[in-house]
Structure formats: C-alpha cells, structure tokens
Amino acid sequence: MDVRFITSSPDLKGRPEPILPEFAFIGRSNCGKSSLINHFLDRSKIAKTSGKPGKTRLLNYFLVEERYYLVDLPGYGFAKVSKDMRAQWKGLFTRFLGAEDRPLAVFHLLDARHKPSKEDVEFSKLLQNSGHPFAIAATKIDKVGTNKRLEHYEEIIETLGVSAEIPFFPTTSAKRQGRVEMLSWVDALIQAYEEAE
What we know:
Blueprint: E1 3-9, E2 22-27, H1 33-41, E3 59-64, E4 68-72, H2 83-98, E5 104-111, H3 118-130, E6 134-139, H4 149-160, E7 168-170, H5 179-196
Parallel strand pairs: 2-4, 2-5, 5-6, 6-7
Antiparallel strand pairs: 1-3, 3-4
Helix pairs in contact: 2-3
C-alpha cells in the first residue's frame, strides 16, 4: 500500500489539494487510534503512538494509493486538556463535518472494553446528524474475552443509539483483525463516489 504523509493543519484552511475523498479517524484519547491507523495502513509507525493520550492536536493528512486521504483527527475526552482546548477541538470537528467541498466518511473508534462515555455519545450524535457515511470501529477486542465480545458490541450500539445498518468493525491491531473489512468499506465508498461523478 502506497502511503505518504502530506500535511498537518490546525484548521480546515490547510486541507490539501487535489480534492479527494477523505476518511477520518476520530475517537476518545487512549482508544488505540494511532495503533489502528498503523494497522489499517499496514505500517508500523506512520501514526505516532504515545503513552500520553491527547498527543494528536492537528488534522494529520496521509495520501493513500493516490486515491484518498486518511485524516487523523485529535482525540477527545482527554482530562488533562483544558476545557477551552476541548471546546476548540469539538468546534474543529463540527466544522470538519460541515464542510461540503469534498466527499467525507468517518471511522468512529470505541474501546471495546468500556461502555461508551458521555463524550463518545456526544460525538456519535454529531456524526449521525452530519449526513456523512460513518462506521464504528471497536478497538482492542483482543482484551475482551471471546464469550463477552457480543455483549460489549451490543452495549456500544445501544448506548450510542445508532442504527443497526451502521457498519461495525471489531478490530485489534495487536492481533491484526478488522483491516480487510475496513478497507472493503472504504473501497465501496470510493467506487460509489467515482460512479457519481
């Protein structure tokens, strides 16, 4: 897979050209976002992982196969970030969803070990109201017992209040699961975008 880092930007003015479909990854800080992005891109360190949640503070753009951008968005819900900074990130995400100059779809990452937080529900509502395609990626499923996983998945879906038609991808970067299914969803959306042009 051909992947190139393109740019980091604090706002939408820095979105790169040419205009291509964008697939954004959003999730609570410490949900395993960087690890899943590396797994998705089949790279070991293209997205920086850290023991300190909240490290991503910009819109980070990667060009994938010259066909679309993967956008690494700042994590939300990180307690050590000021309220003003959290409000700024939420505003940025809201503006990101509201932009209509290019196709957009979003992977909403949820830690499979835990019931979705208040912030998870809040950001899910923003996604549900945006009109953009989105999917749920349940991360760290290897840390949930096999016989407990379905229960955890159902709790995520019920707590977020999402439709059963929303794609749901159980993932684990440690065990390398979920990548093929996520890539298939991306390919299907890109094909639909191209056919609509």
